[in-house]
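Input.
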Amino acid sequence: QVQLVEAGGGLVQAGGSLRLSCAASGRILNLERMGWDRRTPGKQRELVATGTRVGNTDYAEAGKGRFTISRDNAKNTVYLQMNNLKPEDTAVYYCYANIYDIRWYEYWGQGTQVTVSS
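Output.
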């Protein structure tokens, strides 16, 4: 089993910054991809950013230029630096991990609330 523990959410004013972290623990052989998505009541789940083990990154349009995903492979941890936050970024942010162990597995964190006030 693999556990993902997130931290770093909170309340911030528009224009402010937050840094989310997500640490994976447990049986981890090939932690190929880690990333974040976000969910808001009444809206579809939205992918925010993805980072691969070799350093490739991908961002949803909403976060490009403002969000930066990074990984510390030695710590099995992924970070999401969010700058110039907007009220529309308010959501519960979930960390996920894609791990290969004979087959692919996907794990999710418990979610962390990010609230941006105007």
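The two ends are 40 Å apart (CA to CA).
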